[in-house]
Task: structure prediction
Amino acid sequence: MLFDKNIIQESKESFLNLFPEELDWGIVLGSGLSEASGYFEKKEEIPFSKIKHLKEPSIEGHQNKFCICRFDNKNILVMQGRLHLYEGLSPFEVSLPIALMGELGIKKLILTNAAGGLLPSLKIGDIMAITDHINLQGANPLIGISNSSKFIDMNDVYSKIYINELKKRFAIKTGVYAGILGPNYETPAEIRFLKKIGASAVGMSTVMEAIIAKYYQMEIFGFSVITNMTAGIQKKLSHKGVVETGKKAAKKLGEIIKLAVS
Ligand code: HPA
Result:
């Protein structure tokens, strides 16, 4: 399915029937990271299945709901669970929740993910603020837009505003996120390639969402939780290990998100 404004409008209408209030922030929590929203007061939960056209994640470590939370006098729409291209979905289907956020008027977005660390400076459990991305997914959610609004500027996709502030408070790293299609992890040769082209960490999500969020002119903050070192550096990789490490790092990520939102 290609980008379709009518579909987004219908998703928006079904969302507004359930929650008509204004929303200030959007947050997407990746594999094993759901608990990062524990600092926020929960107001309401909306399963993805209640929103027209929204697909449901099919993988372990992802829940299937929006939580509407309250923090610092702000309404925050938290996506617990996200959609991936490797689930057989189109780029538009993967990024529809973010397009929905855009149509709902959300202007600030936090994207989080679990990622494999490529550089010796990154350790398991580290949190890396994303400064830029490389789209290696061979896909784009803007395909289907008929007018020239699709030619978006990708300078400064990820906001740098808070990174220096965050660095003063937390032992946070910074780097470039490479998004691959998956679902298999990389080969050692692919990891050598990713290092050469300037990636710091690699994962299977985030870039479709960041592109559509940029289309909607959102301010985007990206955080990778380094759940493993990549192939060639770490001998055994498993989704279970990724989710377990993510769960351990979720509290620290929650503190960082809290500071970013306030
Ligand atoms: N590679 C790709 N995606 C990932 C990884 C990885 O090593 N870890 C978590 N998501």
Remarks:
- Residues 42 and 114 are 24 Å apart (CA to CA).
